[in-house]
Amino acid sequence: MRAAFITGGSSGIGFAAAMQLAVKGHDLALFARDASRLLAARDALLQAAPDINVETYAVDVANEIALAEALSDAVLKLGAPEMAIASAGIAQPGLFHAQSADLHRRHMDVNYFGTLTFVQALSKPMQDAGGGHIGLISSGAAFFGIYGYGAYAPSKFALRGLAEILHLELAPANITTTVIYPPDTDTPQLIEEKRTKPMATQKITEGGGLWQPEDIASRLIAGMKAGHATVAPGFQMAALNRLGSLIAPLLRWHQKRIISQHGNQ
Question: Which of 63, 178, 164 is nearest to 121 (CA)?
Fold first, then answer.
């Protein structure tokens, strides 16, 4: 059993995935910005699975050089991972005219390019080790344009495209790529997201319920091990995954109706 590498591994879905893989016996490498949260996560993981090794790296996934160096060090210490999950992400909703170009770039740097660097750095070592499983975390915002997600949604659209290509191109190396589309999940990121989320956006995105990170993590891990290209938990995400392009006109009409009632709030 080889190690698992997880970005955003100190909280939310990333930490939940780390815990589930730890109790199965995987050594872990966790990557996140906050060193103190990483150490707290490490302590919790070792309490649950005292026989594993946990390496932590305080790094911003948007910093390509620093992330690549951290990943290289983790491979040197733990070997190429069997499971690689890119969970780090940001979501700061807001109306297009109020969001700066820097904020748009930040979303792409973290959500898309941070994931891209992660996969580029690990796919060759994983191939050399005989293969493995890569898990990417997108969003329902990758299925259709949502009012108030001008900076966030394009980064998840891009990630969706990357995941579909990787699923095809990495398969000959015995590497599966799975992308999950979580509904609203009870994580620190969701709390932060709500600080700037316009009222119309809240109304548009409600209906999928509030999921726990442990449930999303378990579905992602199961999908990765099964080699599924996509995982779409819940009725709402499943419908969007299968029918998004067909029902796009209806979704636009629905949003315009809500925007007329709650726009700019």
Answer: 63
Q: Which pLDDT score is estimated for 119?
A: 98
Residues in the chain predicted with pLDDT less than 70, given as ranges, are 244-248, 263-265
Q: What are phi and psi of 192, to 5 degrees?
A: -65, -40
pLDDT of residue 46: 98
Query: Which residues are annotated as catalytic?
Result: 138, 152, 156
Cβ contacts of residue 25 below 8 Å, gap of 6+?
1, 49, 51, 52
Cβ 157 vs Cβ 184: under 8 Å: no
Pairing mode, strands 54-58 and 230-231: unpaired
Residues recorded for the chain: 265
Confidence (pLDDT) at 245: 65
Q: 4-196+208-246 falls under which CATH superfamily? A: NAD(P)-binding Rossmann-like Domain (3.40.50.720)
